[in-house]
């Protein structure tokens, strides 16, 4: 005679009630849960950002935000070298969750707020927000950080700064694969590392050849290999290359 089991037990191999598991850590305020961060923000002079940080901590701790972090890593970027008509496009497609993380980061100024709204504590407030958002997902922090770091480098070349800074500091995210001249918001990547050199970039072998005049702000052709360019869909890259006067830094639109 066949023994009758409750339906749920037939397939699920139910054994006993598991009672010692914690609830998932979600729908909580990342900032308010972090007393060390709160006191650091106060100590370092950004108490004025408390309410903004509380709101951002609430957003970052939402289940939807955390889920985006998991999805952006589960559905990995895909390189599409050609379009359907055979044109070379070299486009990297990211999951929508990644784009949403980028949107949130940029709308909240993680990529530029101390440059666009400079004041005492501005770097602290930005660092705190960044710290919260990289707990949700770390990899999008790479293009966000590089975009952030581009402004001090561009300050060495005022004509480039004038052209690029408003687009870098814009609080909108535009991931479209179009030339920067057609966009009002851009992200900046970096191509410093080469196969032979990460820390010691003076060993880089990429060469810069002047197209016309030599010197700061002039156009150069770069010849060499870069390595570990981890945010290839940025709109432009700070690229290191050797000139006759030693290593220099070039802004190369994608
Ligand atoms: C996730 C990720 C993303 C990256 N994205 C980018 C990117 O977008 N663009 C880009 O240009 N690069 C990128 N990089 C490369 C990164 O900049 C290099 O990995 C880094 O500079 C270290 O270089 P390396 O890996 O060649 O290590 P090495 O320079 O070979 O260093 C190896 C070890 O030696 C130590 N060391 C090196 N020099 C010294 C010294 N003088 N004294 C004492 N110790 C020393 C280092 O601390 C390290 O432990 C990325 C790397 C990672 C891991």
Helix vs. strand class: alpha+beta
Helix proportion range:
25-40%
Largest sheet: number of strands, sense, barrel closure: 3 strands, mixed
Using only CA atoms, what is the Rg? 23 Å
Terminal Cα span: 73 Å
Tell me how many strands there are: 7
Quaternary structure state of the chains depicted: single chain
In short:
By secondary structure, the chain is of the alpha+beta class. It is 37% helix and 15% strand.
How would you sum up this structure, described in words?
- This protein is 37% helix and 15% strand.
- It is α+β, with helices and mostly antiparallel strands and 254 residues long.
- A hairpin with a 5-residue loop joins strand 1 and strand 2.
- Helix 3 packs parallel to helix 7 (122-136).
- The chain is globular, with a radius of gyration of 23 Å.
- The structure holds flavin-adenine dinucleotide.
């Amino acid at each position: 005679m066949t023994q009758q089991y409750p339906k749920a037990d037939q397939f699920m191999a139910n054994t006993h009630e598991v009672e010692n598991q914690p609830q998932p850590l979600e729908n909580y305020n990342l900032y308010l849960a972090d007393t060390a961060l709160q006191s650091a923000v106060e100590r370092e002079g950004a108490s004025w950002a408390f309410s903004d940080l509380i709101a951002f901590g609430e957003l970052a701790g939402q289940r939807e935000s955390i889920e985006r972090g998991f999805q952006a890593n589960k559905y990995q970027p895909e390189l599409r070298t050609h379009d359907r008509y055979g044109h070379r496009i070299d486009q990297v497609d990211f999951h929508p969750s990644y784009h949403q993380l980028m949107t949130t980061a940029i709308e909240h100024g993680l990529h530029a707020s101390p440059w666009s709204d400079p004041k005492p504590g501005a770097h602290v407030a930005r660092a705190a927000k960044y710290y919260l958002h990289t707990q949700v997902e770390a990899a999008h922090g790479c293009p966000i950080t590089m975009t952030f770091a581009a402004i001090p480098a561009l300050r060495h070349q005022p004509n480039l700064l004038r052209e690029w800074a408003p687009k870098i500091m814009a609080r909108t995210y535009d991931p479209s694969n179009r030339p920067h001249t057609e966009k009002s918001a851009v992200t900046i990547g970096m191509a410093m590392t080469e196969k032979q050199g990460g820390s010691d970039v003076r060993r880089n072998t990429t060469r810069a050849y002047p197209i016309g005049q030599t010197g700061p702000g002039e156009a150069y052709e770069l010849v060499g290999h870069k390595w570990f360019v981890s945010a290839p869909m940025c709109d432009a890259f700070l690229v290191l290359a050797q000139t006759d006067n030693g290593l220099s830094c070039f802004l190369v639109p994608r």
